[in-house]
Amino acid sequence: QVQLVESGGGSVQPGGSLRLSCVASGIDFGITNMGWYRQAPGKQRELVAIILAGGTTNYTDSVKGRFAISGDNTKNTVYLQMNNLKPEDTAVYYCDARKTIWPYSRYWGQGTQVTVSS
Questions:
Q1: 3-14 tens-digit pLDDT
Q2: How far apart are CA 102 and CA 69, in angstroms?
Q3: How do residues 100-118 score in pLDDT, each as one tens digit?
Q4: For residues 112 and 23, what is the distance between their CA atoms, to the nearest angstrom?
């Protein structure tokens, strides 16, 4: 059974940092792309960062140079290090797992709130 559990969200002032964690049980990182998405009130869910099964990472332009995604296979955990946070980063952040082989199953975590405000 696949389960994704996020943690690490909270409230922080602009310029601050947070590290989100996603513990993924029942997932083989070797055949799964792991991503972080976010959804702000009234907006569509958007991809923030992704780490492919082969280790390649990619980021949406607005977070490049500030956020870093990484994975620890020994802990079945994916991280999102967020630095120099801005008010526009405020959103619910979701962990996403998508298998790279048929049936290309996809799973979501429950989300964790990040609020950036002075």
A1: 999 999 999 999
A2: 25
A3: 999 999 999 999 999 999 9
A4: 13
**Residue keyed to tokens 């960062």:** 49
Residue 63 has phi, psi (to 5 degrees) of -115, -5
Place of tokens 């696949």: 2
Helical residues (DSSP H) of the chain, grouped into ranges: none
| Residues 49, 28: Cα–Cα separation, whole Å | 19
Q: What is the b/e burial string over 17-38, where b = at least 16 CB atoms within 10 angstroms of the residue's CB?
A: ebebbbbbeebebeebbbbbbb
3-class DSSP state of 2: coil
pLDDT digits (tens, 9 = 90+) for 39-92: 999 999 999 999 999 899 999 999 999 999 999 999 999 999 999 999 999 999
Q: Which residues contact 73 (CB under 8 A, 6 or more apart)?
A: 29
Q: CA–CA distance from 23 to each of 2, 85, 103 (Å)? A: 10, 23, 22
